Amino acid sequence: MRQLEPLLQAENVHVSVGKKAILKDIHLSFEKGKIYGLLGPNGAGKTTLLKVLLGVFPPTKGSIAFDHHDLYKSSNMSAIHSIGSIIEFPGFYDNLTLYENIELHLKYLKLDYSKEEIVKVLLDVGLHEHKDKLFSQTSLGMKQRLGIGRAIAHHPKLLLLDEPTNGLDPQGIKEVREMLLRIVKDREVTVIVSSHLLSEINLMADELIIMNNGEVVFESKSLKRTQEIFLYKFPVKHLDRALIDKISEHVLTSGKAYNEFISALNPEKLSKELKNYSVSYNEMEVKVLSLEDLYLKLIAKVKTNEFISA
Ligand SMILES: Nc1ncnc2c1ncn2[C@@H]1O[C@H](COP(=O)(O)OP(=O)(O)OP(=O)(O)O)[C@@H](O)[C@H]1O
User: Fold this and answer.
1) Where are the domains of the chain?
2) Helix, strand, or coil here: 68?
3) Residue whose CA is at the smallest distance from ligand 1 atom 13
4) Model's pTM, two decimal places?
5) Which pLDDT value is given to residue 309?
6) What number is the ipTM of this complex?
């Protein structure tokens, strides 16, 4: 499969505040033009990771490469011009119109802009007919869309969105999703979007990243999203950890008696793969995981005990 060029890479990123480790050993790579969904329970570290990737929260250890430059070594302004974001609720001026709020942002960035460009942004986020309304007179859905409008107004290469559908009703969530998909297609921007809404992210994202306790516990890049995901449980005597590391990138638990891991290989294909390593076994359990099962399993909220014995 063709590997696209990464726009952004996090290498060995750690963040600690006092004695508390908030992000631990993050290695991530983001390719151009894709939407990445960042999932995880409250306190998993999603917002902190987005701030680190934005260039406003220097990691305690590790590095961020954005567009071939170290984000924390290059001049701040060049990154600000290439990244758009909504992290925590974006501040706007209540007594300015929607048009003026976008215009002020472009002035702040000291960018040349035309009236037509602002109109295009407002059209892209479905707010053109409301452009002369004061910000204070808009609904939450309109505010969220204006936030996205401001984030894309300066044509960034990267868009970081922290829970952009927070507080919206199902219709509003659908509108934001469709709008984001359109924007990515039109503007060829890479998007990293965090959410608690598993089903929503699944509809929007090309790739999934699941975080828990400051760690990345799952990346979908090795699994085709349309494929089924299998959870296997093998006695250690048949399949040890070293071999599992060779056949699966997603080891879940590694115990004294059993190892559990995720694979996109169905039991038949896995069996063939194991034959190549001369492994024979007479005991193994497998379960097909839904995305929700996988998520819950990864954040260790439930125990999966519905294995099918082989
Ligand atoms: N500046 C800070 N100082 C101390 N602790 C912090 C700081 N920022 C974040 N934390 C802690 O780090 C952990 C991760 O927080 P973060 O906001 O990144 O998680 P999150 O996944 O975005 O959560 P949520 O979904 O609730 O927004 C939390 O325990 C939080 O209390």
Assistant:
1) 33-46+76-219, 223-309
2) coil
3) 43
4) 0.86
5) 45
6) 0.96
